[in-house]
Amino acid sequence: MGAAARFELLDVTKEESRAAVVAATNRHFGKLDVLVNNAGISGSAGTGFFTAPKPGIGS
C-alpha cells in the first residue's frame, strides 16, 4: 500500500467548490483521508499570527 496525492482547484469561499472537490476525491480514491488547503501567503505575513499553544512543542 503506497501513498498517493491529487491536486484539485478549490475555492474555499464557495460551498459548491468544496463539495465538488470532496466528490471528485471520493470518485478517484474511494474516500477522503486528508485535505490540505495550501493557499499561498505572499510577502512577510508568514505564520506569525498563529498564537495558539501547540501541545508537545516546547514543553
Q: Characterize the biggest β-sheet.
A: none
H and E order? H
Q: Decide which structural class fits the backbone.
A: mainly alpha
- How many whole angstroms does the radius of gyration measure? 16 Å
Mean pLDDT: 77
Please work out how many helical segments DSSP would assign.
Answer: 1
- Helicity level: 25-40%
Low-pLDDT stretches: none
Question: End-to-end span in angstroms?
Answer: 35 Å
Overall 3D shape: extended
Strand coverage percent? under 5%
Strand elements, count: 0
Task: Summarize the entry for a quick read.
The protein is an all-alpha fold. It has 1 helix and no strands.
Structural features, described:
The protein has a domain at 1-38. The chain contains one helix and no strands. The mean pLDDT is 77. The chain has one helix at residues 15-29. The protein is extended and about 35 Å long. With 59 residues, the protein is mostly helical.
